[in-house]
Structure formats: C-alpha cells, structure tokens
Write a structure and sequence with these properties.
The chain is mainly alpha-helical. It has one domain: Amino acid/polyamine transporter I (Up-down Bundle). About 65% of the residues lie in helices and about 5% in strands. The protein has 15 helices and 4 strands. The strands form 2 sheets. The protein has a two-stranded antiparallel sheet with strand order 1-2. Strands 3-4 form a two-stranded antiparallel sheet. The chain is globular, with a radius of gyration of 23 Å. The two termini are about 40 Å apart.
C-alpha cells in the first residue's frame, strides 16, 4: 500500500457539482473518484512487477551464506509471512468495515483509521525513511551495473586476467544528472510510461540472469556447495559466518519488502477479496521465481557466488548479453528511482505549501515555453528541493557504495514495521481481538519474532558496512 500514496495522486479531483450530473456519475465510484476498473489479475501483475526487481540479484549470494537447508527455508518463511500479513492489510483497505467501510487511499490513512495517534507519524517515518534508503540503494545498484558494462567490454577485449578497474563515482554522477531532469516532472501520473518501461526491464534482466545460471549449470564444471552454505575455516571465519548469515536474511527481506498496488481494483466483488486473490497469485509466482534464481544461482556458482550475479562476473560470455542485462538494470532503476522518490517529493511540497501558502517561492508557478515540449510550469522550490534531494542521495551512495550491505540494511529496516507490525496491529484493532486470547498471543509472537529477525539482519548489514569502510577510500576507485 505504500505505492498507493503515489497512485492516489493519479485520481482526478471533481467539483461537487459534477456528482449531480448523471453522465459523470457513471464514470465515478461511490467516493466521487474515477471509477476503478482493475481486477485481481491486473493487481497480481502489479505485485509481480513490484516484487521482481534488483533484490533478485543478490539471492544467489544469500543462499550461498545460508546453504541448501536454511536458504530455501528462509525464502519460504518470508514468502508465507508476506502473504499472511498482506491478507490482513487487504482487509484494512476499508474502515471500519472491510467490505462496506470508507476507503483508505494510503497506508497512513489505514493506520490513522484503525490505530490513530502517534502510530500514524511512526508509519509515515518508516515509509519515508524506507523510500530514502531505496533511492540511495538504487543509485548504488545502477552505477554498479553501468560500471559492469564497461568492465565486460574490457574483459572481452583484453582477457579475464586484466583487472579493468573502474570508479563508480562518474556513473553515479551521470545517474544523478538523469534523475535531476526526471525529478522536475511535477506529477506522478506523468511517469506511467517510465513505470511500464521499468517493469519490462525488470523481467528482462531477471530472466537473463536465471537463463545464464541454467546455462552455466548445464555446461558442467565443479562448484562447491554445502548444506550449511559457506564453510567456517575454509571460506570464512566463525564470526564472518554469523554476520554474513544475518546480512543474507536482510537481503531476502529486501527482496520481499514490496508494497501492494491495489487501489485501482473495482469494488465488485469486494476489494479485499480481490486483493487476497491477487496476493495469492502474485506472492506464489514471485516465490517460485525467487527460489529458481536463488537455488539455480547457488548451484551454478557454489559458495563463491558473487554479491550481484550480473555484475560480480561469475559470467563473462556472451559479453553482449551481459551488457544488455546490465543496461536493463540501469534503465529499470532510472524509472524505479522516480517511483520511490515522487511520494517524498509530494509529501515535502504539500507540507510546505500548507504551512507557507503565501510564500511565492514555494507556491508560485512560472510558465516557460520549452521547444518540442510546450509550456512548462517552473516552481523554484520544486526545482531547488528535488535537485538537492538527488544530489544528497548521490553523495551518500558515493560514501557507502556497498550493494549487499545496503540492500540488507534497507530490507531489515522496512520489513518488520511496514510488512508485519502495522498490518497485525490494524487487524487486532479491526477485529477487536481480546487481549491475551490465543490468536492475539500468536500474532504478537509472530510480530516479535520478525522484529528480532529484522534487528539481527540490520546488525549484520551494519557490521558489513563497517568492515567495507575499513578498506574503502571515498570518492576514489
């Protein structure tokens, strides 16, 4: 539902008088907004598109840390928990009744309706910090993919023994420049074409990675895999094994920490039933895809699986296909960055406009005639704030350009509050579960277990960042 914040801005506001017009009514829902036409099938597609992203790139590495037993078990556990809490969240789309109540257009609206108080602010903080972390993570991932294209061509030309060292920083700057331009698009609904392109790219590079892993596995060659993953005393020390295990859990949490885009589902049958059906198909499909990518990737690379199996150069040939896959990643993340940044932009701009409505710097629009585009309304606050935001995310990415560590930290930070805690608390409030009843107890236990898992995953990622920073020199190759 976090993406519902973005989708909410897509609805066309109508004047009250419009509702009296019978010709308009047939195009509007009972809440006066544009009639929703989505079905459980389209919602399933949205979920699959949202889930299958850059998180899939680290799954082979994560399985390598956990092994053949714990790896699939953790994947399935996260799958089940995500599915279960998503069904609870679906019932919170309307309040107070899940079928006939008032619609909640954003995650925060649902929390406000069922929990209220300071938990609304905590939900908003969790969401926006998560969005900030994701945009930084995407800057890192996109630059790594662009560097991989350059290195792939270098390896093809000079041989695999050449180091072909390349700095990420110039590519982060290029990525940031592109985002500064795209960030000036004022409304999220103007970016629908970018979201469609990003979704196509996501499926393309994920499928290429899976296909290359299958080809490598079919080609033979011995790789070392074990039931428990990387071996203490051979691959890692005892402490490294523990920290890497925690970090791997965070990477898997990142892969499953998705936001359901279900607010365009039509109201008949009831939205919560369609959402649950969509969640079943969407989560089961992505779980099958994740298990394939993770397990086949581990079988192909063994305990030496790279952190990102498309940029870690487990594959060298065909170099053109690897280049294409990494270009797809970069294009996907260019669009995905805006998908996650736009709610932050909108929140800050609407908050400032409410508090300083007379300030022309914040609210003033200046029409500029742009060749080949037409009239574009420039808002100086939007220009300065969005540009500054992109620059800050790029600078932080240059300071901490560590793919697996950062993905694990984002996953650990977002999984428990947004995927587990708030859906469970809203369900308890909605159903008025008696305190200390059997269902109340096991829901609380599930929430506490997920909290502890998130804490250890965050600890593993932070430790990984600290270790990486010991040898890393910022703003250098």
């Amino acid at each position: 539902m976090a993406k519902e914040m973005q989708k909410a801005s897509m609805f066309i506001e109508r004047n009250p008088g419009d509702y009296e017009n019978g010709d308009v009514d047939k195009n509007l829902d009972d809440d006066g907004r544009v009639k929703r036409t989505g079905t459980w099938l389209t919602a399933s597609a949205h979920i699959i598109t949202a889930v299958i992203g850059s998180g899939v790139l680290s799954l082979a590495w994560a399985i390598a840390q956990l092994g053949w037993v714990a790896g699939p078990a953790v994947l399935m556990a996260f799958s089940f928990i995500t599915f279960f809490t998503s069904t609870l969240l679906a019932d919170c789309y309307r309040a107070p009744d899940p079928v006939h109540g008032n619609r909640n257009y954003t995650y925060m609206d649902a929390v406000r309706a069922y929990l209220g108080g300071r938990k609304v602010q905590l939900c908003g903080l969790a969401q926006y910090v998560n969005l900030l972390g994701i945009t930084i993570g995407y800057t890192i991932t996109a630059s790594i993919s662009m560097v991989a294209v350059k290195r792939s061509n270098c390896f093809h030309k000079h041989g695999h023994h050449v180091k072909c060292q390349t700095s990420n920083n110039p590519f982060m700057i290029i990525f940031a420049c592109i985002q500064i331009i795209l960030s000036q698009i004022p409304n999220f609904h103007n970016l629908s074409w970018l979201s469609i392109l990003a979704a196509i790219m996501s499926f393309a590079y994920s499928s290429i990675g899976l296909g290359l892993s299958i080809a490598k596995l079919a080609g033979g060659g011995h790789v070392r895999t074990t039931l428990t993953g990387v071996t203490v005393g051979v691959d890692v020390s005892g402490s490294e094994k523990i920290w890497r295990t925690f970090q791997a859990i965070g990477d898997i949490a990142f892969a499953y920490a998705y936001s359901t885009v279900l607010d365009t589902i039509k109201s008949s049958p009831p939205e919560n039933k369609s959402m649950k059906r969509a969640t079943t198909l969407g989560v089961s499909t992505t779980t099958v895809f994740y298990v394939l990518c993770g397990l086949v990737g581990y079988a192909a690379f063994g305990n030496d699986a790279p952190g990102n199996f498309l940029t870690g150069f487990g594959f060298y040939e065909p170099f053109w296909l690897i280049d294409f896959a990494n270009i797809c990643i970069a294009i996907h993340l260019i669009g995905a960055y805006q998908v996650f940044a736009q709610p932050l932009f909108g929140f800050a701009e609407s908050w400032c406009a409410r508090h300083w409505p007379e300030n022309k710097f914040i609210t003033g629009e200046h029409a500029v005639d742009v060749p080949c585009y037409g009239v574009y309304n420039v808002n100086f606050f939007r220009l300065v704030w969005r540009t500054a935001y992109v620059i800050v995310t790029a600078v932080v990415a240059m300071l901490f350009p560590f793919f697996n560590d950062f993905l694990g930290l984002i996953g650990a930070g977002s999984f428990w509050p947004l995927t587990v805690y708030f859906p469970i608390e809203m369900h308890i409030a909605q159903t008025k579960l008696p305190k200390y009843s059997l269902r109340w107890i096991w829901l609380k236990i599930l929430s506490m277990i997920c909290l502890m898992v998130s804490l250890v995953a965050a600890a593993g990622s932070v430790q990984g960042l600290i270790q990486s920073l010991k040898t890393y020199k910022p703003f250098s190759t």
